Amino acid sequence: MKFGLFFLNFLNSKRSSDQVIEEMLDTAHYADQLSxxxxxxxxxxxSNYGAVGAPxxxxxxxxxxxxxxxVASLNHVITTHHPVRVAEEACLLDQMSEGRxxxxxxxxEKSTDMRFFNRPTDAQFKVFEACYEIxxxxxxxxxxxxxxxxxxxxxxxxxPHAYTEGGPAQFVNATS
Length: 176
Prior knowledge:
- The chain is an alpha/beta fold.
- Helix content is 38%, strand content 17%.
- The protein has helices spanning 17-33, 55-65, 83-96, 111-116, 124-141, and strands at residues 4-7, 38-41, 70-77, 101-106, 143-144, 156-157, 169-172.
- The protein starts with a strand and ends with a strand.
- The mean pLDDT is 92.
- One of its GO terms (molecular function) is monooxygenase activity.
């Protein structure tokens, strides 16, 4: 049986962001020592629902401080990031951790975040699909060459290519 946990990193009047982050680091350290399989980090912006706006950055730190633990981005919000940059960062984490990084991603839950990051809210699901297609191509082939309504550029190599054949393990986080 495999055990894992995820960090929502809620903030409140009794827990500062410093405390929340320290607790996350301590918990990940113990989870690694106790042979947990995976920890995952949640992305959130502009609210007390989470202290982490950059789950891939946190994942890199956690991968560096652990030996065996897989580390996942619980919901890297791909619609508010450039997909090539996402693919580069995810492949780099996959390489540096020798396959311990798990790429969890999602669409943006809040239209306010989409507007803040200057992303089209009227075609949000299509943006999500376009981003995922680029990221998945980069993971599986090492290259991408999109030509859709949102992204169009010549064929490029995403460096480094993924360590894991086909790219890091993936899951999509969804709500209904």
